[in-house]
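Lecture notes, unit on binding sites. The following record was shown on slide 14. It pairs a sequence with iron/sulfur cluster.
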Amino acid sequence: MPHVVTQACCGDASCVFACPVNCIHPTPDEPDFATAEMLYVDPSTCVDCGACVSACPVGAIVPDHRLPAGQERFVDLNARHYAAAEAPSTSDAASMAARFPVDHVLRLPLAPAAPPSALRAGTSVDVGIVGSGPSAMYAADELLRHPQVSVTIYERLDRPFGLARFGVAPDHLSTRSVMRLFDEIARDARLRILLNTEIGRDITLDEVRRRHDAVIWAGGAPTDRPIEIPGTGLGGVASATSFVGWYNDHPDFADLDVDLSTDRAVVIGNGNVALDVARILVTDPGELVATTIAPRALEVLRRSEIEEVVVVGRRGPADAAFTLPELVGLADSGVPITVDEADLAPVLHPDSESPGAPGVLDDTSRAKNAVLQEIAARRTPSGRRIRLAFWESPAEFTGTGRVSSVTLRRNRIGDGPTGIEETGQHRDLPAGLVLTAVGYRGVAVPGLPFDAATGTVPHRTGRVVDGDAPVRGVYVTGWIKRGPSGFIGTNKSDSAETVAALLEDLSGR
Ligand SMILES: Cc1cc2nc3c(=O)[nH]c(=O)nc-3n(C[C@H](O)[C@H](O)[C@H](O)COP(=O)(O)OP(=O)(O)OC[C@H]3O[C@@H](n4cnc5c(N)ncnc54)[C@H](O)[C@@H]3O)c2cc1C
Ligand code: SF4
Ligand code: SF4
């Protein structure tokens, strides 16, 4: 009865270090860890000892005979990860590549693994951390392993833990339980958290630097990427950032005016956040009572007239930004979902007689495609539902005062910088609510260098640099360091790298 990694996995790799037989992969020092959408247990070597279960902060590993409903598919996904070490046959690969061309799949690298760090005995170190999100809490945890270190966290909001509280969907209770780990870290007597304290507004960064031996900026990437097309200023067009903040009781978005008196909502972008907002919009409010959703949002959702939420991706299914575990979770959770068979059909490259572009799908994309095929074969749900649409980009939002329609242009594989080009076809989709979910972005920090192209603070292994010169005593971690990629647990290895650099610098004083 092997153990199985399931949907809630946030990739912190704690299980990897707990496992006595090294049967959980990829490990942080393996190359695939940087792009893996989840970790997998090898069923042929797992000895069923359960050590990983107690190491996992979010209850994502379970014995295969105790899988929660809707997670059964993960047994096969874990096993297939190892079976798929065998390459697909040439004909199989060719037919998959034709059906789901992927010559332009882009996966952002996540975080590197850091070697263990040391601090000389007798040294006393006082570190300030700006932000209390996952990257800050993992950095604090890493620092507090050293008895000489004390830490002060500065957080602008009235409650700690950043997007673990204000981003993770309210119905993803296992993932949200990572906050129990952060609570435990926060109980350390050498850690204090100052809430309602914004650096740059209440205290300057210079002042924080004077107070501490070193400062780690862990302020995240708080804004969304804008969509620059006509109509973004219309009522009823909002960012997923604000909508997520609204249903998660984020103080900045508590008063957002959300009008759900429309029968269709459109979500632009198809990452995990897009799936989150779509799922919340179609879930029976009666089921949301048992979640952490903000009561005010629940009241509005109870009056919702939405019948369909269309999630629009500009490229094909093989390039969908959502991860495999999230797709599986959605497909098997009973949430009504549909996808047009036409969107899964082979797509002709404009310069090619043969369908598709060269390129063999990786295992994750193949597994995603299999799930999408299965959804397409299901009968279209009659009531409130999510529709996944591919190969379309928004051209314009139209309406008088409020949005009433979205013009979507059809794409195909092409030679443009994003791997697609317009076909010239378009359609107008009536909709009274549009949520844009095309990614997050860091903002410049007064007093620190900033790379506007990536929305990050430039650094070398976590040490902030201005050109070639290090900014003494200032470090970065999390989304403001590597960009908005990865899972909650990805920040653990990211912060370990930053803390290793910091301790190396301070031990050399
Ligand atoms: C909507 C959404 C849902 C997600 N869901 C999941 C999920 O289900 N599973 C998963 O594994 N990952 C999920 N993620 C990703 C995960 O949340 C991120 O990897 C992680 O939160 C990044 O951590 P961070 O510490 O860099 O930033 P954040 O979590 O954003 O934390 C930054 C903190 O810094 C504070 N801050 C910023 N500026 C200042 C300042 N000037 N002074 C003081 N404080 C400041 C902010 O208030 C915030 O608390 C989700 C992300 C989003 C956006
Ligand atoms: S049950 Fe034991 S052997 Fe199996 S994955 Fe977990 S720690 Fe490894
Ligand atoms: S959340 Fe961490 S400990 Fe749990 S399964 Fe995923 S990588 Fe392993």
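Take-home: The domain at 225-436 is CATH 3.50.50.60 (FAD/NAD(P)-binding domain).
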